[in-house]
């Protein structure tokens, strides 16, 4: 709306700094105090970052020739950084190994470290790098390899009982918009 009436039409131009799109609102002598809307749309993107933009506003006519301003727009991104994991439980036989993949759902803003917790069941071990000595428990994703799945090896030791067992592997992520 305008702050005061005018004896001529007042044109208000809006111009976005990001796209250069321009829209014009016209206020007349009879509707100067009736609000007019400017619709702001945010495009879908492939990252999990919040974004911002500015809209410049300027008025011309009816004594408003020097009126300018800026409206800041904050875009809350709907892409949340989540880990893509197996949809079902995995099964491994005693004395055997199996693998499952971990991947990020959206491009991170920086390096993401995924940490897997060794299960409380000592017969089950998790390893993210079988070429290294011992059990490794981290995966590293970057802004360039985020959409490439990384494998995790699960090994079940042979034991002396005939009971089926289960174990839970906790997976967490930190950094780059994941788990922050």
Report what the structure shows.
The structure is a single chain. This protein is an all-beta fold and 180 residues long. The chain is built from no helices and 11 strands. It has strands at residues 10-16, 22-27, 51-60, 68-75, 83-84, 97-104, 112-116, 124-127, 138-141, 150-156, 171-174. The protein has a 4-stranded antiparallel beta sheet with strand order 2-1-3-4, with no helix packed on it. It is rod-shaped. The model has no long low-confidence stretch (mean pLDDT 87).
Question: How is this fold's topology laid out?
Answer:
Layout lengths: L9 E7 L5 E6 L23 E10 L7 E8 L7 E2 L12 E8 L7 E5 L7 E4 L10 E4 L8 E7 L14 E4 L6
Short précis:
This protein has 180 residues and is mainly β. The protein contains no helices and eleven strands.
How far do the termini sit from each other? 40 Å
CA-based gyration radius:
28 Å
Number of helices: 0
Strand content: 35-45%
Counted beta strands: 11
What string gives the helices and strands in order? EEEEEEEEEEE
Can you tag this structure with a few keywords?
180 residues, mainly beta, 4-stranded antiparallel β-sheet, 11 strands
